[in-house]
Amino acid sequence: MPDLKNASDTSLVVAIARWEQAALAEVFRRHAGAVFALAKRVLGPGGQAEEVVQEVFLRLWDQPDRFDPERGSLRSYLLASSHGRAVDMLRSDSSRRRREEREAQFRAKAGYDLELEVWDLTVADHIKAAVDGLPAEERRAIELAYFGGHTYREVASLLDQPEGTVKSRIRAGLRRLRGDLAGSGLEGA
Amino acid sequence: MNMSEFLSHRDVESLLGVYALDAVDGPDAEAVARHLRTCARCRAEVAQHRETAALLAFGGEEAPEQLWDRIAGALETASPPLDLSRLPLPPSRPSAQRSPVDTMGHPGPVGRRNRVGVSRRVLAALAAAAVVVVGILSYEVDSLQGQVGRNQVAEARPSLGQVIAAALTAPGRQLVALRPTAAQASSGSGATAEAVLLPNGHGYVVKADLPALPVTQTYQLWGLIGQQAISLGLLGPRPGPSSFQVSPGVSVKKLMVTVEPAGGVIQATSAPVVAGQPART
User: Fold this and answer.
1) Which of A151, A154, A186 to mutate to test the interface with B (most CBs of B within 10 A)?
2) CB–CB of B59 and A24 under 8 A?
3) Which chain A residues have a beta carbon less than 8 Å from that of B48?
4) How much is the pTM?
5) pLDDT tens sequence across B192-211
6) Residue B105 neighbours by CB distance under 10 Å
7) Using CB atoms within 10 A of its CB, is residue B171 exposed (0-12), middle (13-18) or buried (19+)?
8) What secondary structure letter does DSSP report for A2?
9) ∠ CA(B126), CA(B131), CA(B134), 5° rounding?
10) Per-residue model confidence as pLDDT tens digits over A110-140
């Protein structure tokens, strides 16, 4: 059996397409933690985050051809899958009440330093530095959209800003982060 | 009329950042998705934003252990390629998205679990040739009665039971009786397993009477080839019939099963619980 621990992500997906369960297990070993953490960050603690992880990996098993190595890393593919599913769950009716509670809490905490709450210690130092280097308005908009699972219209409402401003700040913030992180020559795990 | 259908390229560009973060819904999201189908530049920008977002996600957390076992238990697996003309197939139905039975030299699976139900009619047809197999698989049929929907698609594929039945009577096949090793036998474990090896390198665990393991562990199958013990795959904590593969023509001197941490290991961590040598009877 080939040494899976040293296999590239792409070759693991090829092995998954040949029904090799051990390859899926190795992908799980490498990436399930991040997939789970992101789902939990969006959905809060509870069984829904675990459901998301299960769905993401079963989807990879059933449809490995949906991963296109030319488009990006396997990690970002799995995280996009996790994020999309988590946001869908969040926006479903059954979660609406909890969501409205969170939004109410947010409004009540005007001036609260979001940075303290959001960026977990497990984010690598250079990433944390890049995020800290963003203009506060870009950082807040990205945090509300990505981790809060809000649509940009909701972010605009929460921050009391025009929708166009929110859209361009998020786009600019992502570009700035990409530039900072590419410049440091470091890539995500 | 839905104005979103007429989003200009600039309008779409302004949405690319929020789209990549799943922060667009409704007609706007559909409009962006439509645009991305034909615009490589915008697709590339969305992919870049998603890579950036992926870096923000936390890497340090571990997913709960039992989560992998739930996933492993839910996997639909394929039977390896075999001479289908010799098998009594159930009536054909619309096949699953990807046909697993590619007989054009498709490499075989390693250490699979098969959770596909076997119809009672097919089981009866196999009864004369494979009483042992029927006995093992019937419990799986019973436990799968509630999953008829999924099995209707899966039944289009030959089942592992059919494949094993054919292997047991194939010319040149070698049977392997795996029994407790000397050290284990003294503890009276009563563990046994039966396997079969074919000349083309395909192998099957036909039966595995091994004590169930906690979810943190798995049984792992090894073949002694030359001087090395090569992993042939994982049998899971509650092993049953499964398939494995060695290169055709390679001589397997011995099959062994060890207990390992869930997910398997590159090198065995302990002595086998059962082992056996292939015999041509």
Assistant:
1) A151
2) no
3) 174, 178
4) 0.55
5) 999 999 888 888 999 999 99
6) 6
7) exposed
8) -
9) 70
10) 444 444 444 554 567 788 888 888 998 999 9
